[in-house]
Specification:
The chain has 486 residues and is an alpha/beta fold. The chain contains ten helices and 26 strands. A hairpin with a 4-residue loop joins strand 17 and strand 18.
């Protein structure tokens, strides 16, 4: 019997380094499993340029998982290597798969500067050269003196990168492309060519780079035992790289390695084209759905809920869609800030957790809160919705996306999950009732709203339909519940 899956992103941007995250998630493993979590996406585990205070995306040394005294600390922000490996084992022992955050686009915090010939390019048009070639001071030499060649003696120099955004000679910030290099193709077309994002931009056309990254990934999978990967910033990396990288790593490790990429673009066609291009078994986060949820939350009741799934990955390619409400990039203060309004969060999570399509990802910041911005967690609410997904959200789905302010759907349930089946009604305006079909096998039974909208039970008629009520600006979830005898 297969239960519905739930991924949890177990971190947010501003969380403190103490208590150590690896220790905390290990302690929470059993509770998370009981709540219905089947996989956890953990933050980057390797040493960043800012040492123990680095969130993990300013990658310095991929081989340092909190083992070497580099960048001012042995541990990473989240703990030591031993604590990381212990956390993975604790999660897996609890029946939870572990997905590692893989950040390969760039490196930061170089150990030495090199003099490199480069041209400056327009930040808004990466094909427009601003100045002719000149010698700049580029931080591109990575020797990892604290690791002393353990695990890999590969060192990085300017030939392994396309460009950088800092000239140490002139103390000038600009986008520089190294002479003899070209921006990688097969990347997002924003700014003409969105190969360059930050730091020392890795040249994925370089064979030495490909071989070293594959070698590292095979080592990483072997030493950690991870079950899958979350790929960061794939819009900046050639599709052909991940096509070949994923194939090779899976071949060499013998592991399926569930993979989801972060391609931040609200156009579903771009997402589908990318998945076609990588020709590999991989999913993408449903960014278009996130923006639909965000826009609905900002509209204050004027959003047409009939269109909430229009132009989304979960609608067009449901098997490949990882649905989410928010994440560490969309939370307040971050570069992609688009945080779904608090009042709409219950509806948004019902839309990703209680439907048949998509692989939903719950955000740590929504679950446990974001103290930095005085945002309280919704653990009680989310535990309720997650339990409903685990126990009730099965069987044939019937959609009633037929009103601009009030939509709903039902699930008929299945034989494998006792008493499964439910009816969901969402309103971003006036409350009311919606007649929906839940299945003739429920005829004569009673349903109750577990979200507290209605204090009464309703009886399913002989046709298998019920009049399901929802309050204004709320979500109601009705499940079978026989009235107590008196």
């Amino acid at each position: 019997m297969m239960d519905n899956g739930i991924m949890m992103q177990y971190f947010e941007w501003y969380m403190k380094s103490e208590p150590a995250l690896w220790t905390a998630v290990a302690k929470d493993a059993a509770k998370l499993s009981k709540a219905g979590v089947t996989s956890v996406w953990l933050p980057p585990a390797y040493k960043g340029a800012n040492g123990a205070e680095d969130v993990g995306y300013s990658v310095y040394d991929l081989y340092d998982l909190g083992e070497f005294n580099q960048k001012g600390s042995v541990r990473t922000k989240y703990g030591t290597k031993k604590e990381y490996l212990d956390a993975i084992q604790a999660l897996q022992k609890a029946g939870i798969n572990v997905y590692a955050d893989i950040v390969l686009n760039h490196k930061m915090g170089a150990d030495e500067m090199e003099e490199v010939s480069a041209q400056e390019f327009n930040a808004n048009n990466r094909y427009q050269m601003v100045s002719e070639g000149k010698t700049i001071g580029a931080w591109t030499k990575f020797n990892f003196p604290g690791r002393k060649g353990k695990y890999s003696d590969f060192t990085w120099n300017w030939t392994h990168f396309d460009g950088i955004d800092w000239d140490q000679e002139r103390m000038t910030k600009a986008i520089y492309k190294f002479s003899g290099k070209e921006w990688n193709n097969e990347v997002d077309l924003e700014n003409g060519n969105y190969d360059y994002l930050m730091g020392a931009d890795i040249d994925f056309d370089n064979r030495e780079v490909f071989d070293e990254l594959v070698k590292w990934a095979v080592w990483y999978v072997d030493i950690t035992g991870i079950d899958g990967m979350r790929l960061d910033a794939v819009k900046h990396i050639p599709a052909s790289f991940y096509r070949d990288f994923l194939y090779t790593v899976r071949q060499q490790t013998g592991k399926e390695l569930f993979t989801v990429g972060e391609y931040w673009n609200g156009d579903v066609k771009v997402l589908n084209d990318y998945m076609d291009a990588i020709k590999s078994e991989a999913s993408l986060f449903d960014v278009p759905l996130h923006y639909n949820l965000y826009n609905a939350s900002k509209a204050g009741g004027s959003y047409d809920l009939r269109t909430i799934f229009n132009g989304t990955l979960v609608q067009e390619n449901p098997i490949k869609a990882v649905t989410f409400v928010d994440n560490h990039d969309t939370q307040p203060g971050q570069s992609l800030e688009s945080f779904v309004e608090d009042w709409f969060k219950p509806m948004a999570y019902a839309l990703i957790l209680l439907r048949q399509d998509g692989y939903p990802c719950v955000f740590y910041g929504d679950y446990n809160g974001i103290p930095h911005d005085k945002i309280k967690g919704k653990k009680q609410l989310l535990n309720k919705l997650m339990k409903l997904r685990k126990t009730k959200a099965y069987g044939v789905q019937h959609d009633y996306l037929d009103h601009p302010n009030c939509i709903g759907w039902t699930r008929e349930g299945d034989e494998e999950h006792k008493d499964s089946g439910l009816a969901v009604v969402i309103s971003d305006g006036e409350g009311g009732t919606k007649r929906m079909y839940v299945g003739k096998h429920f005829a004569g039974t009673y349903f109750s709203d577990v979200m507290g909208n209605a204090k009464y039970n309703i009886k399913i008629d002989d046709e298998g339909c019920g009049e399901f009520y929802v309050n204004r600006g709320a979500v109601a979830v009705w499940v079978r519940k026989e009235p107590s005898s008196r």
